[in-house]
């Protein structure tokens, strides 16, 4: 029987629409091959939503997302909207989407693609074989903690503050996801905090340690975030799965991504419980090359693969896409961001066509 899925597509801003269009073409081929049916519903978010409706996350968009089986997002933001007040910034739309759907678990893999190893800023012997997953808490911590704000104190000085807070159950639920992911990967979990200074981190560490009793097969370690940043650069192969809070995860996942040298290749997934997942590339909207047919669509396409694997439970379809990406790279085709000597430079659309051909074999 044909499986039917309702997908909300959020092309967003900058290169978003170009790379989304490649992912949609890929999904259409996948549908035929694996006897799936996708119903595509486009919606507005980010800067393009601000231009049309005055707000970065229209109610209608959130409603559509909630009614779908999965949400595929491209990228948001651009210079044009950078100076608007915070509640009208594109980023606020993204945060609203995460909290509105209660997507508390953010999965950010950083895998070295063998064909692109030269693109890494690190030496080959350090980076070779790196395959790690950052599990970032996404709906709590200092990003959403209250109270917060900027106020004028009795001494006449302005003070800005945010609150880094985690409830025990918030730590438990993200740690559980991380333990389970570690079990499916290399069986090692490193929890990152700042427990030498922060009370919130002490609670984090205590809860993760307690939960480890339920996962005797997982090798758990703890690192302070400053040390974790250093270790990620010094010897990244020691890591398998990393679990950490919202802010530390924001920083470390960018660090992990750049190690691979190809941020244009990295997908991500944001998952909750009993809600549709959100799948998006790690990179941004690259407004400087928007509309020029220069963008690398592979992270978007790999996000669609992640959607199939983690959101729709179609691992074979996911693998088929990943294999096609591998084959196109193996054949020497590159977009500008991952170009190196003796390879063939192609644009976004041409890369899409090559993928389609690779999918059809
Ligand atoms: C990310 C981004 C966002 C974040 C911004 C755009 C709000 O940096 O997804 O990592 O800080 O979470
Ligand atoms: Mg970030």
How many structural domains does the protein architecture include? 2
Kindly report the average pLDDT value.
Answer: 96
Contiguous runs where pLDDT drops below 50 for at least 5 residues: none
The shape, in one word, is: globular
Helix segment tally = 12
Q: Count the beta strands.
A: 14
Strand order of the largest sheet: 2-1-3-12-11-4-5-10-8-9
Structural class: alpha/beta
Helix content percent band: 40-55%
Defining key terms:
alpha/beta; Isopropylmalate Dehydrogenase; ten-stranded mixed beta sheet; 12 helices; binds 3-isopropylmalic acid; binds magnesium ion; 361 residues; 2 domains; 40% helix; single chain; two-stranded antiparallel ribbon
Explain what the structure shows.
- The structure is a single chain.
- The protein has 361 residues and is α/β, with parallel strands linked by helices.
- The chain is 40% helix and 21% strand.
- The protein has helices at 16-34, 47-53, 59-66, 90-100, 124-127, 168-184, 199-211, 225-234, 246-259, 298-311, 315-330, 348-360; strands spanning 3-12, 36-42, 70-75, 105-111, 131-137, 149-152, 158-161, 188-193, 219-224, 241-244, 267-271, 277-281, 333-334, 344-345.
- α6 (168-184) crosses α7 (199-211).
- It is globular and about 65 Å long.
- The structure holds 3-isopropylmalic acid (IPM) and magnesium ion (MG).
- The site of magnesium ion has 2 residues, from α9.
Summarize the topology:
Elements: E1 3-12, H1 16-34, E2 36-42, H2 47-53, H3 59-66, E3 70-75, H4 90-100, E4 105-111, H5 124-127, E5 131-137, E6 149-152, E7 158-161, H6 168-184, E8 188-193, H7 199-211, E9 219-224, H8 225-234, E10 241-244, H9 246-259, E11 267-271, E12 277-281, H10 298-311, H11 315-330, E13 333-334, E14 344-345, H12 348-360
Helix pairs in contact: 1-10, 1-11, 1-12, 6-7, 8-9, 10-11, 11-12
The structure holds 3-isopropylmalic acid and magnesium ion.
């Amino acid at each position: 029987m044909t499986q039917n899925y309702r997908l909300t597509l959020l092309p967003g801003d900058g290169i978003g629409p170009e790379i989304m269009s490649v992912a949609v073409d890929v999904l259409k081929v996948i549908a035929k091959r694996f006897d799936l049916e996708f119903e595509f519903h486009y919606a507005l978010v980010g800067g393009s939503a601000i231009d049309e409706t005055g707000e970065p996350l229209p109610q209608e968009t959130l409603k559509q997302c909630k009614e779908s089986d999965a949400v595929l997002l491209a990228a948001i933001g651009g210079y044009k909207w950078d100076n608007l007040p915070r509640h009208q910034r594109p980023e606020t739309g993204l945060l609203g989407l995460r909290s509105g759907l209660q997507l508390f678990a953010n999965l950010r893999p950083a895998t070295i693609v063998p064909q692109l190893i030269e693109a890494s800023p690190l030496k080959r012997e350090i980076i070779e074989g790196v395959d790690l997953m950052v599990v970032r808490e996404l709906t709590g911590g200092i990003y959403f903690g209250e109270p917060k704000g900027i106020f004028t104190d009795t001494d006449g000085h302005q003070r800005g503050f945010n609150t880094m807070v985690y409830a025990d159950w918030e730590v438990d639920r993200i740690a559980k996801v991380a333990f389970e992911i570690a079990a499916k990967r290399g069986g090692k979990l490193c929890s990152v905090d700042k427990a030498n200074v922060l009370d919130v981190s002490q609670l984090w560490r205590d809860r993760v340690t307690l939960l480890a009793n339920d996962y005797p097969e997982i090798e758990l370690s703890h690192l302070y975030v400053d040390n974790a940043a250093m270790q990620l650069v010094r010897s990244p192969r020691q890591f398998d799965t990393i679990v950490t809070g919202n802010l530390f995860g924001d920083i470390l996942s960018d660090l992990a991504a750049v190690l691979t040298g190809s941020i244009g290749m990295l997908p991500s997934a944001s998952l909750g419980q009993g809600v549709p997942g959100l799948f998006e590339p790690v990179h941004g909207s690259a407004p400087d090359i928007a509309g020029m047919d220069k963008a690398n669509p592979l992270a978007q396409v790999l996000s669609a693969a992640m959607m199939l694997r983690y959101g729709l439970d179609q691992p074979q379809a996911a693998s088929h896409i990943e294999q096609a990406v591998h084959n196109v790279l193996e054949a020497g085709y590159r977009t500008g961001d991952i170009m190196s000597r003796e390879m063939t430079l192609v644009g976004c659309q041409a890369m899409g066509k090559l993928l389609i051909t690779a999918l059809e074999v």
